[in-house]
Each structure stands twice: as structure tokens, then as C-alpha cells.
Amino acid sequence: MAMHKVFARTRGGLRMGALFRPGSEILSHRSLAASGPAVDGKIKDMRKFAGRFDMVCSRFENRISTMQATMDSETATIPSILKSKLKALESSTKRNIASAQSELEGQISTINHVLWAGSSVVFTVGAASGYVLMVFFQFYKPNFIDSWNAAISTWWS
Questions:
Q1: pLDDT tens figures, 79-122
Q2: What CA dihedral angle connects 62, 64, 67 and 72, to 10 degrees?
Q3: DSSP state, 12?
Q4: Of the candidates 47, 72, 63, 85, which has an alpha carbon nearest to the alpha carbon of residue 13?
Q5: What is the pLDDT of residues 132-152, one digit of tens each?
Q6: Whole-structure pTM value
Q7: Residues facing residue 13 across a β-bridge
Q8: Which of 31, 33, 111, 136 has minimal CB crowding within 10 Å?
Q9: What's CA 130's distance to the chain center, in Å?
Q10: Alpha-carbon gap, residue 54 to 24, rounded angstroms
């Protein structure tokens, strides 16, 4: 086997020199411990470190998977939350439109009543004024009416 850096995927992460095995398992081979007691102590320390490193990596991977599961569950609820908010907004909008429509109908009705009453008053005042003027000119002919009649009759003839 060539002595070069190999990145291999183990337990969801990249490790240098690990061929699909945890570091503590790689360091347990007897070929590494053949050099004597000084090297055995270092290998023992390396095994401890590799075991701790594997434990930290597995805890970290567990946290990542927990966070992924949490994110997946929260992401799965987003469409239902949006649908409920959209339905609430839709019903609120329908209520507001109905309220505005009824208010507008009331205002239009009030305007129609005011216009009808105003036109009735104008018509009544106009008719009464016309009647008063008719009576006034019928019984109380001023001099200028005769001159108007004469001017009009000359102009037409």
C-alpha cells in the first residue's frame, strides 16, 4: 500500500489516512507496535487520542443529524403554516372587502337620498317661484312688460 494521504469517508466525515475504518482500529494493528516500549506508549496515547477523536466525531455527527432532522421537520411544516396564514389573510381580505362594499353601498344610498331630496326641493321652489311670478305678472303688470311686448312684436314683424 502506498504511503500517501488518503481521504476516505467514515461515519459521515473525511479522515486522513483512514480506509473506511475509525482511527482507533487502524492504530490497533500489531505492525505499528513492533518497535519497542517507547513506541508502544506513543501508540497507546495515539490510540486513546484516536478513540476520543472518534467519539467527538460521532457526537458531532449525531448533533448534525439531530439538527438535520429538526430542520427537516421544521421545513416540512412551512407549507402548512403558509397555507393557514394565506387562508387567514384571504378570509380577512374577504371580510374587509365585504365591509367596504356595504359601507360604499350605504354612502351611495345616502347620496341618492340627498340628491333626490335636493332635486325635489329645487323643483318645488322652482314651481312655487314660477307660480308666484305668474300670479304677479297676471295681476300686477308693470310698465316695462308692455314695452317688452311692443319691442318683441316689432322685432318679429
A1: 888 899 999 999 999 999 999 999 999 999 999 999 999 999 99
A2: -100
A3: T
A4: 63
A5: 988 887 777 666 677 778 888
A6: 0.39
A7: 10
A8: 31
A9: 65
A10: 8
